Each structure stands twice: as C-alpha cells, then as structure tokens.
Amino acid sequence: MIEDFNPWWASREGVEGVRFISRLSGNVEADAGLAVQHRASIAFGTWAFMKWLKERRKTITLDWLEIWILLILKAANGRWVGVDKIMAVIFLLERVYGLAKIRFVRGRIPWSGDVAAALRRLASLGLVEELHGKAYRLTENGRMAVERYSMSDPRIRYPFANIRFFIEWDADALAEYIKVNYPEWIA
Question: Percentage helix, strand, coil, to 5, in the chain?
Fold first, then answer.
C-alpha cells in the first residue's frame, strides 16, 4: 500500500521517509498523510523564502547621480524639467561637490552620457515620467523614493539648496552662467 503513495513532487527520499514513519506508528495511512503535510510545509517554506527573496530584490539602490536627478525633479514641484536644464544643474553640482565623478563633453550646455543613462534607468524603474526623451518629472513612486532620504544629511541638504536655487532659472540662463564661469566647457 505504501508503494502506491508517490505524488509528482515526492522524491525517493520522501517515500523512504514515509516508510520510516510508518515503522514507528504502524498506521501507514496516517503516517502517509503526515508525510504529505510535512512535504507541503517544506514546499510552503521554500515558496515563502522565494517570495521574500523576490521582494528583497525589488529594493532599488540609487547612486548619487540618480539621487541628484530625483532631487532636481522634486524641486520642480511636479513641473516638467527639460534635459538641458537637468544637464546644466548636474554639471554645476558636479563642479561644486564632485561626489558623482560624472564625465561631461563640451557643448552649448555640457552633456553627459552618464546623466542620460541615469535618466533612462530612472524612467525604466518607474521613478520618473518621460516626455519623448526631452523632459522629465517625478512619478508618485519617485516622490516616495526621494522622501526616504533624510534632508538632515549634509550630502543631501546642501546640494538640494543649490538645486532649489538653480531650478528656477531657464536653460538659456543656466547656459549663460556656465559660459561665464566655466568657459572651457562651452563649445
């Protein structure tokens, strides 16, 4: 009778386990049910662990560049912010703080492939909304993500003060400011 008990998920060890249990109590049907429950609890434990692991993988790690971009979009208060303005503000933050080590190339406004890649990544994560690749704004998920960072941290507070100052300027005024203060970066 015990040889008939072999569900699709049971391995040979599971069947041997049933035989071992049945030797202890002598009631094969009860011990087979106990073994099924035991196997189900192992399967549930494995499922729960995999679910926990998937949830843990959803935790997003952002670098300084991505945090600065989220801070720029937070300072815009829901307005669309153009790529040129984002590039100019990031360029100025990099010159002042130098935390992110971003590479720029000369242009009307210094351009960075790193910033463009970070914008694409934030859009793919659903933290920012993209308008034809020319303007961005925070989504609700992005707003919640940026709110997790403490404004008491000086690495966040001081750049954010500068961001709030420069976000009110238009892209042409930022380009002129960069041209006057960093002429080697304007083509």
Answer: 65, 5, 30
